[in-house]
Amino acid sequence: MEDEKYTSHVESGATNGASNGASNGAASVPPQKAGFWTRRKNHYKRFWWLHLLILIICVLVITLPLAYVGFPNIAQSNLNKSTLNITMQQVTNPTPTSVQLAQMAIAGNPSSYHPNLDGFQAALFLEDTEPNIQPFGYLEIPPIHATRYTGITTNQTLKIANMDQFTAYNNLGLTTKTYRVALRGRTKLHEMKFPTATVDFNKVVTLTGLNNFEGINVTNFQLFLTPQGPDQANLIGEILIPNPTIQAIEFGNVTFNVSVDGQNIGQSFLNNLMLMPGNHTYPLRSTTDQGAVISLITSKYKDGILPLTLIGDSVVYNGQHLPYFEGPLRNSTQHLNLNVGPALAQLGLNLGSLSGGNSTSMR
């Protein structure tokens, strides 16, 4: 009996020990690890400031180059695509060192941007002087708000910066059908909240030239046996000078040497000449060697039609010579046919009797 009690006691103790051991073991199990999203949430709660700083840096890295590098490049590209057309030009009050230059132009802007450009100074030059340009003057461009089409008006005293180049410019304008003039300058461009961009203004405009006054013609005139006025003119009339350009040019007093077949027969004067666009007639006064004219009619040009050659001699405004006009006019030759028969008939001189033959019909 005592053995059975002992055995029961031992088994009971073992059972209790096992039970206690199991209970203790369950209490010591480590807690379950937090999930990925929980850990990430805790991380952001703890280091939010670091991520905000990284975000700001990334934004700056992207936007700053775009604003300070990308936008200026875009602005320059759009400016390069813009167009410039001069619609009116007036050259007045010429002096040996300057002219008054008034212009109207239309700037075309194909971009969806409508920026503002600061006023700036643009060099005027001929393309053949590139890359080391030689400006003949500087044009003051006013501030511009670039819409689809923007009118630009300038009116200033243009000081001649290079006389040779300004003379070459006028020579092109006088002797060619078309010619090109370049403008170059640098200014600031403003668009919305973008940083101010520095842009280069480089444009070339094509202008219509006077083409040696092609179509020039004496429309009517009268001969005088007695010289008239202080200039001793013995031929007074009107001359048609075509001007297909958009330019009005104030020359002043222009003198031409007149010849036939290389033989000088006198000079013609266009006083106070203001050449306007279009076909206009201007007062003409000439001093001619009437003896030479009669000799040409009686020997070679018995029909009374003389092939005249006019070459510029001088251009004077307010008593001062203008070399930048004189040079081109001396390089330019104008040809026209002058029928002197009707004017001689008014003086009672018959072509037939002068030429020693029958009367010739007049054209």
What would you say this structure looks like, in words?
By secondary structure, the chain is of the alpha+beta class. It contains seven helices and 17 strands. The protein has helices at residues 2-27, 36-81, 163-175, 290-299, 323-331, 341-346, 351-355; strands at residues 83-95, 98-108, 116-117, 120-125, 137-141, 144-145, 149-159, 178-190, 197-208, 217-228, 233-243, 247-260, 263-275, 278-288, 305-317, 320-321, 333-339. The strands form two sheets. Strands 1, 2, 7, 10, 11, 12, 13, 14, 15, 16 and 17 form an eleven-stranded mixed β-sheet that branches. Strands 3, 4, 5, 6, 8 and 9 form a six-stranded antiparallel β-sheet that branches. Helix 3 (163-175) packs across helix 5 (323-331). The longest helix has 46 residues, at 36-81. The protein is rod-shaped and about 135 Å long.
The count of β-strands is 17
- Give the overall shape, derived from the CA principal axes: rod-shaped
Helix content percent band: 25-40%
In DSSP terms (H or I, runs of 4 or more residues), the helix count works out at 7
| Largest sheet features | 11 strands, mixed
Structure class: alpha+beta
H/E topology pattern: HHEEEEEEEHEEEEEEEHEEHEHH
Low-confidence stretches: 1-23, 358-363
